[in-house]
Protein 1
Amino acid sequence: MQERSSVAELAENLRRELDRYSPGGKLPSSRALVDRFRVSPVTVSRALAQLAAEGLVVTRPGAGAFRAPARPGAAPAGDTSWQEVALSAESAADLVPRSVDASGVLVSLAAPPPGVVEFNGGYLHPSLQPERAMAAALSRAGRRPGAWGRPPMEGLPELREWFARSIGGAITAAEVLITSGGQSALTTALRALAPPGAPVLVESPTYPGMLAIARAAGLRPVPVPVDADGVRPALLADAFRATGARVLVCQPLFQNPTGAVLAPERRGEVLRIAREAGAFVVEDDFVRRLVHEDAGPLPRPLAADDPDGVVVHVCSLTKATSPSFRVSALAARGPVLERLRAIQVVDTFFVPRPLQEAALELVGSPAWPRHLRTVAAELKVRRDAMTSALRLHLPEFALAHVPSGGYHLWPRLPDGTAEASLTAAALRAGVAITPGRPYFSAEPPAAHLRLSFAAVAGTGEIAEGVRRLSTAWTEVREQAGARG
């Protein structure tokens, strides 16, 4: 967060000073900017690159940076109102409108303003990312013979084999497809398994990005409640019977957002219920590699215990590395595999080979297990720090479950709390949080927050963020009392 803020501040300073220079005029040298603003050469380089991308400066290797020529006046605005009719007419032809609402996803993707504590992030803070190992892996990958050629459509055989071994059971490399991130894999799976207008069973609450995928594909998400032991089998069976659905999407391990782990006695029951309904289970195994140090042995993926091809398994390297390291896998058995493959080829052709080669280099290096051990230890420390801070400063926030994996907590707010008011007050206080409403496909039973402890710089920032959240909570209660 600090480096990103420094780049933004320097870019803004330089943007304000551009009027001092005529078009084509030379800006101070990078060394002069480093000395004047007391920032690193990397920060200067990134700030100038940002201004170049905006068309405000031109950089010339060996010569420096110059103010860009004046841009021509903006063209008159066109009339795009016709699109409302066109888009509405297209939706009216569908059984279910294919609206695309990215708001639930953007909450965890958009960077907060400088100085705001990022409790809404969905990825590891840069200090937890294996940046050196990834850079070294990418460098070695770029020198591999054929690294810049076209890869096999299904993915590199060695990488498919690695994913197959990590899933376990009888899964083979031939049953694995390499995809570009978990979001892409989920999109492919839902498109392959359910036609527009069909119901799809989802955990309640669940990941907003998956709900957005389903709705954009014209599917109807139907909620199945989750408790501390995962999805509830009796209600799952009722939902299959009532809807005729042929797909369940679930996260059996450290579910997002509750952190629940599907109980051992429910694992086989969920597969049996789905098999009797003639349905697929899309298993989103998104944070298996973000286990905490005190978790103990993990249950195997559902796919490892499924000989009948009920499970379509999704797993990724992204959460444990970097949001830009978008390498994941789809695993499935039977005829559905060919449909998954066909959709992926049509949509994306293939995952870039240099990225696949870099993934192989990374997971095969000694740095990979060291990184996972470091992250496991640090996530436990951060989880404990946030849990303690919430219980001390915000005891009204009920923590029914403290997970031993993943990167966030899911506190329930007191009855009657307006999530939107608290979210806005928190941002004014300097902390970005994620409201619970987008995680429910129907009316939520209570107000919640999702608080990430992985996207911040460390335990000091966690303590400060909870302090700011406490200030926001006091403001919201006082406003509610004044209205009452």
Protein 2
Amino acid sequence: MTHEEAMRIALEEARVAAAHGDVPVGAVILHNGEVIARRHNEREASNDPTAHAEVLALRDASKLLNSWRLSECTLVVTLEPCVMCAGATQSARIGRLVYGAANFEAGATASLYNVMSDPRLGHNPPVEHGVLADESAALLKEFFASKRS
């Protein structure tokens, strides 16, 4: 499965989040090119501040693989991860991170901080950004515009 195909699945997840009032962010984890986890934001739905799509997907993938080390996996997410999610991604030793839209308000892999390239953390996975970024950004823009009106 290509990163673009995985991002399309993540976008489907993001739409599910928006449908129940959560910020539309979706995440997919690939292992050997196959989807092993797919989640969306559930902070509003669960009243859990840690229920970001990335964290939930990392939890599911770790359970499935029976390991917290996800070095053979790729995390594909519609929005650049925040500090919490970048930290969780680092802690999981993810093999690769792919994201869509930049997150200029809270991005922690390029926009505000760059947790993934900090040599002090000892794990610096490759990061690919901009995959279907326009679609990801449009979904977010539409969601927040509807909240303001």
Protein 3
Amino acid sequence: MRLLVIRHGETEENARHICQGQTPGTLSPKGKSQAEALGRKLRKEPIAVCYSSDQRRAADTALIILSAHEGKKVPIILDTRLRERYFGSFEGKVFPPYSDEVVPLEEVETAEAIGERLRSFLEEIKPLYGKEDTVMIVSHGFTLRVFAALFRGTPLSSLGEIPTPGNCALSEYFL
């Protein structure tokens, strides 16, 4: 199965350096434009289904991308396992320059917990689609770093080596 993995478009909160975590987020005009451009790029791809985080910024990105799709209507399935990392009381606040030192770690969802969410998601969809199927996934920056580590076989303790994908960045994987 071919996976087209996408980070949501830029949000108003991204532009203001606000930690969104599991808050909904609102696509900015730039984010909508990014999603429209990616939609044009993917319009002829044979996408069988789209799985998206249920957070508004990701679901809206998926809708915009697929609004340009030619051919059959692609179903969008919202899945909580594709959500962004939970940042606890830090959500909705501006990221300080050294956020790793400020955020109370006991409140923050671990990379391992996100990895378990993603493994569960992948194990569930794996038997549903064939080798020739293309599945689109829309999620979030930190979550997609964990996703990349899983596919690369990189230890989650080495996430610092994996850059956060840009807004509406597209990665391709094979499952």
Protein 4
Amino acid sequence: MVRPADMSRRDARRVALAAQGFAEKRPSGRVDSRHFRRVLDRLATVQLDSVNVLARSHELVFFSRLGAYDRAALSRWLWASREVFEYWGHEASLHPATRHPLLRWRMAGDHQWGGIRSSARDNPDMVAAALAEITERGPVTISDLDVHRQAPRKAASWWGWGDGKRVVEHLFHRGEITAIRQNGFTRSYMLPERWLPADVLAQPTPAADDAQRELLLVAARAHGVGTARHLADYYRIKVPVASKLLAGLAADGALEPVRVEGWRQPAYLHPEARRPRRRLRARALLSPFDSLIWERDRTEQLFGFRYRIEIYVPRAQRVHGYYVLPFLLDEHLVARVDLKADRQAGVLRVRAAWGEPDAEAATPGGRERVTAELAAELAAMAAWLDLPGGVDVEPAGDLAPALARVLPARSEPLDV
């Protein structure tokens, strides 16, 4: 057995940031489908989320790595190119279409939500009717499906879903139908052969262990370095299963075992991972659902940054705010801001801004630079979101006063 190599936390952090695309400069010219494709190829999966208080989460993921781009162009590529499909990966997620065979093991299993399982089990005629209607009419939204409109809603259920919606979600999970997003964020359902390339659908279905082994390698490449729990979380594979498969991959030389400073569990380094020797220069506001930070324990282990999303926390009990984005500067998460795009007023509102004292101390230039760089990134985001009123900072959080002083004097984003 190969003896694990030692890796400092600093080096692990650099590997992780490079793997997620933060060791490269943003494009200086027009951003197009080539850039979108490169981001998705690097990340492997991009989580979707319905919250739109700022922008859709997947749009923020691309912005953090590419800077300003045409959001309509991203939508066209995602929902017209047939290069991308939506399925349950790390929650509802975007995947390269070529990865469809590796997710069929999940399609063969039961949905994780008991309500969907029971609705499908108890209403086989409704399942058949939904599939027949989508076959005939797709692409079609849930609101336009007769099987949904005619089924009673369950007011006490999560989101008020009725059996009609639930059986459609069952079919989606089983891979018997797929969907694209239209008119903002609404799913339109259709048969897979109407969206996925024929050569992808014709590929044989791998055994579950083989598919999960390959997905763990994909996760390792997107992570750079991670423990079994970190890598398993990327595609929500059970940790005991992942641990066994990863040990085999390491024994075969497909992954390199490492010991990361301060981590209790053994870790795995992808052999193609970039290992930057110099300090990274990066700047980005991160979606709460960004793959760099979605495994919260790993975020704390890498950055010393404890992050919990507070969307579902009662307002009076929130610590940092409703939709809080961590701010990455160079190699550290140095601040967090609660943001809202006030489209009626044409303003990007900073509801609260908080600095991270330890990270600020580790940043050349300290709080002054953190404030200036954050102000520049906020201004760039406001312009990208077409908010002509710029940025308005509300007086909440220890960083808010300094941020409010800087913003009026700086309207142009800094080069990264």
